[in-house]
TrEMBL record:
A motif (HXXXXD motif) lies at residues 131-136. GO terms for biological process: Kdo2-lipid A biosynthetic process; lipid A biosynthetic process; lipopolysaccharide biosynthetic process. GO terms for molecular function: Kdo2-lipid IVA acyltransferase activity. It is found in: Cell inner membrane. This is Lipid A biosynthesis acyltransferase. Keywords: Acyltransferase, Cell inner membrane, Cell membrane, Lipopolysaccharide biosynthesis, Membrane, Transferase, Transmembrane, Transmembrane helix. One of its GO terms (cellular component) is plasma membrane. It catalyses: an alpha-Kdo-(2->4)-alpha-Kdo-(2->6)-lipid IVA + a fatty acyl-[ACP] = an alpha-Kdo-(2->4)-alpha-Kdo-(2->6)-(acyl)-lipid IVA + holo-[ACP]. It comes from the Bacteria. Catalyzes the transfer of an acyl chain from an acyl-[acyl-carrier-protein] (ACP) to a Kdo(2)-lipid IV(A) to form a Kdo(2)-(acyl)-lipid IV(A). The keyword Transferase applies. It is a single-pass membrane protein. The chain crosses the membrane at residues 16-39.
Length: 306
């Protein structure tokens, strides 16, 4: 990976407020973990009342995906989800700035042998993940145990992009950041036997997507996972990360590689992936990033859901 370098232009006065905010966040991040969890929940409550459009998206997603729940149950889940998003803000800062030793004390990992076995066989791996709110800290924690490459899109603010990339790179010194549109680059590293973090659970529009059910709702689902696995000669290994209760830290669970994947058709593969996504989300629905408009793209003739 080409490491981000500091640019003297980052000291321009237009960035001073951002630097001040980052400094205050760094100071807060020095607090004990239990305090950061509490601050995150408080931030989540503020977000719940101020972020009206996002609150609507989360509420609508919960209505679509969990119609069997009562309205009070869904409202409770909504509150827990915003609390999780608030905590994620401080988890991001922890992953950037906590000493590695301090951070590693929060990690519990299961199934690392599946990644190690693929590495020993020089077999590329699509590390199939989900957009949980613990995404940032999960990647940092796993990066301390195994090299992971990642799909990357530069942030519009160059100072924030610099700080973010430095925070991420320190856990994965020899990892590679691949631009999200760089398909050739992704296939190259897969064929070199490396592992790439990849999440197929969001709505990327109708191009190269198929409509298959997700929680019973037709959802535009990318076919890229199958294509990358085939062209990159790679295994698809599912993984999840979970924020454990009572400030116990985080569990990263790596599952065995999907067998017979890709399958007979893109439709079959997309359905199989969505079924796994459903199962993983259902185990910790409050930690999923419901603020994404997962069902934005609709089949032709169907009304919008948001």
């Amino acid at each position: 990976m080409k490491h981000s370098g500091f640019d003297i232009a980052f000291l321009h006065p237009r960035y001073w407020l951002l630097w001040l905010g980052l400094a205050l966040l760094w100071l807060l991040t020095q607090l004990p973990y239990v305090f950061l969890l509490a601050l995150g929940r408080g931030l989540g409550r503020i977000m719940l009342y101020l972020a009206g459009s996002r609150r609507h998206i989360v509420r609508r997603n919960l209505e679509l995906c969990f119609p069997h729940l009562s309205e009070p149950e869904r409202e409770q889940l909504l509150r827990e989800n915003f609390a999780s998003m608030g905590i994620a803000f401080f988890e991001m800062a922890m992953s950037w700035w906590w000493p590695k030793k301090r951070l590693s004390k929060l990690l519990k990992v299961e199934g690392l042998e599946h990644l190690q076995a693929a590495q020993e066989q020089n077999q590329g791996v699509i590390l199939m993940a989900i957009h949980f709110t613990t995404l940032e800290i999960g990647a940092a924690l796993l990066g301390q145990r195994h090299t992971i490459d990642g799909m990357y899109r530069a942030h519009n603010n160059p100072v924030f992009d610099y700080v973010q990339r430095r925070g991420r790179e320190r856990h994965n010194a020899d990892s590679r950041a691949i631009e999200r549109e760089d398909v050739r680059g992704m296939l190259k590293v897969l064929r070199q036997g490396r592992a790439i973090w990849y999440a197929p659970d969001q709505d990327y529009g109708p191009k190269q997507s198929l409509f298959v059910p997700l929680f019973g709702v037709p959802a535009a689902t990318v076919t890229a996972t199958s294509k990358f696995a085939k062209l990159g000669r790679a295994q698809v290994i599912p993984m999840t990360q979970t924020r454990l209760p009572h400030a116990q830290g985080y569990l990263i669970k790596i599952e065995p590689a999907l067998s017979n994947f890709p399958g007979a058709s893109d439709e079959e593969d997309c359905l199989r992936l969505n079924q796994w996504v459903e199962q993983a989300i259902s185990q910790q629905p409050e930690q999923y990033l419901w603020a994404h408009r997962r069902f934005k793209t609709r089949p032709e003739g169907e009304a919008k859901l948001y």
